[in-house]
């Protein structure tokens, strides 16, 4: 099957079902239209007068540059468990989360090395993906024995072998893990393991996490995309997301030069050195 092309997973549908929609898997047509209308209004807002200078430093992110997408019609991207919520965390994961929050609260600004990788545009929680405000796009390229998956965010690329080779040794860890693929009839299945202990997602996880993605072409401009997260050290059970991929007409992926142009930390350090020189 041909999966090649540029595919968008942008959506304003949340990962987890909101508390006021308990028991409802789908929105009504009227609710979907209202959500999409609200997003269109928000996306056309300049936002300049909506936030204080402290909350919107240099007014860098006015709304017109966001690309959040529209509603899928579901109340949550999580389809299993059926309540649309993440499973309960294990006691081990609860402790890890608490320790992480305490460290960030007290040491987040101790040094430039404490700033997260996504802030420095090095990697950004994208295997598997959860939609955010922009760059919610895959480009899939197929060649004999391999599938390459480019993520627009950070321009991370996975070259996925399909020849049945074994995963990397468990001692070799990567930010986006190590992916291996195979065909299940017309569905491409990609299993990813060997994450680093410094890998971050938009949900709790550990280096023991195993992600199983399934790509099924269901139309000329659509792919049924699902992923299941297995992580016994974090969750009491696996969980699954359904995230439709659509082919946006005329979409072009441009260079993602975020890290190359990210001078914030350099400016912060230069400012601190200037303050030190000016001190009596």
- Overall outline: globular
Give the termini distance in whole angstroms: 70 Å
Mean pLDDT: 90
Fraction of helical residues:
10-25%
Radius of gyration (CA) equals 21 Å
* Order of H and E elements: EHEHEEEEEEEEEH
**Assembly form of the protein:** single chain
Low-confidence segments = none
How many beta strands in the DSSP annotation? 11
For the report, how would you describe the main beta sheet? 7 strands, antiparallel
Could you characterize the architecture of this molecule?
- The chain is α+β, with helices and mostly antiparallel strands and 280 residues long.
- The protein has 3 helices and 11 strands.
- 21% of the residues are buried.
A few lines on this structure:
The protein is an alpha+beta fold.
Looking at this protein, list some descriptive labels.
single chain; 280 residues; alpha+beta; seven-stranded antiparallel sheet; 23% strand
Explain the layout of strands and helices.
Elements: E1 5-8, H1 29-43, E2 78-80, H2 91-107, E3 137-143, E4 146-151, E5 156-161, E6 178-184, E7 187-193, E8 210-219, E9 222-230, E10 239-242, E11 245-246, H3 264-278
Antiparallel strand pairs: 1-3, 2-10, 3-4, 4-5, 6-7, 7-8, 8-9, 9-10, 9-11
């Amino acid at each position: 099957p041909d999966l090649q092309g540029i595919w968008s997973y942008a959506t304003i549908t949340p990962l987890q079902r909101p508390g006021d929609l308990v028991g409802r898997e789908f929105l009504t047509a009227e609710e979907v239209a209202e959500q999409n209308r609200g997003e269109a209004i928000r996306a056309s807002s300049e936002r300049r007068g909506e936030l204080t200078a402290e909350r919107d430093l240099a007014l860098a992110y006015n709304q017109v540059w966001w690309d959040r997408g529209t509603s899928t019609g579901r109340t949550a991207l999580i389809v299993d468990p059926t309540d649309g919520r993440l499973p309960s965390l294990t006691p081990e994961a609860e402790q890890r989360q608490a320790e992480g929050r305490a460290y960030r609260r007290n040491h987040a600004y101790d040094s430039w090395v404490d700033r997260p990788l996504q802030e420095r545009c090095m990697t950004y929680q994208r295997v598997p993906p959860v939609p955010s405000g922009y760059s919610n796009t895959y480009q899939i390229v197929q060649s004999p024995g391999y599938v390459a998956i480019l993520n627009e965010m950070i321009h991370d690329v996975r070259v996925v072998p399909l020849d049945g080779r074994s995963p990397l040794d468990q001692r070799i860890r990567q930010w986006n893990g190590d992916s291996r693929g195979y065909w299940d009839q017309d569905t491409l299945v990609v299993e990813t393991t060997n994450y680093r202990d410094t890998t971050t997602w938009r949900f709790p996880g550990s280096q023991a996490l195993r992600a199983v993605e399934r790509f099924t072409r269901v139309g000329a401009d659509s792919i049924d995309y699902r992923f299941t997260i297995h992580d016994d050290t974090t969750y009491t059970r696996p969980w699954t997301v359904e995230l439709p991929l659509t082919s946006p007409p005329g979409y072009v992926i441009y260079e993602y030069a975020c890290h190359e142009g990210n001078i914030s930390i350099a400016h912060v350090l230069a400012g601190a050195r200037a303050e030190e020189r000016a001190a009596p």
